Amino acid sequence: MGVSAVSKESRAFIAALQMSLDGYIQGAGDEVDWVDSWSDALGLVPGADAAVIGGGTYPGYEQLWGSIAADPQSAAAMLGRAATDGEVEYALWTQRTPHYVLSTTLDKANWETARVVREVSELRPLREQPGGDIYVVGGAALVASLINEGLIDELRLIVHPVILGGGKSPFAGVRNRQALELVRFGTGRSGRVVLAYRL
């Protein structure tokens, strides 16, 4: 998988989601223990120098990646396994990369590199600012809302070879039919398939 195929006249918003083979991003009990690496998404977006994340996802994200950045050994308690080299690299990336936290309920973000934004309209000007791609971390509600607002340029799915039999759909909040163009695909570790679509 290479860099974004989106035109570089403006910055691209690129969302990456981990997904089961039957189309869920979490199991019926919100479990995500089937994801054996959380660093894949950054590998798919090597040109990203900013991130957008939903307010519901941010507190856990801040805790996980902040802890791993400070002490990679802390991953065992949170992930139930050692952090991969890619996850440690990603944790360090989170500490130096601007994060825009879309939330109407959070008062503040604790990271110096993060700031809370209240409206999707506050994200639109990022397109015209100098810089690389903007990585849309998630969760599903954020990705759906940005698709609805026409702010996702590319959607990258990391499909894991596991059937969950139920759970949380990544696109439940999308209002209208979307036609996507497959721009590249590839295989990852542990039998994963990576699909990149342009919206």
Write the layout of secondary structure elements.
Blueprint: E1 13-20, H1 40-44, E2 48-54, H2 58-70, H3 75-79, H4 85-96, E3 99-102, E4 114-117, E5 133-138, H5 140-148, E6 154-160, E7 181-187, E8 193-198
Parallel strand pairs: 1-5, 1-6, 2-3, 2-5, 3-4
Antiparallel strand pairs: 6-8, 7-8
Helix pairs in contact: 2-4
Word description of this protein:
By secondary structure, this protein is α/β, with parallel strands linked by helices. It has a single domain (13-198), classed as Dihydrofolate Reductase, subunit A, CATH 3.40.430. The chain is built from five helices and eight strands. An eight-stranded mixed beta sheet has the order 4-3-2-5-1-6-8-7. The model is unreliable at 1-7 (pLDDT under 50).
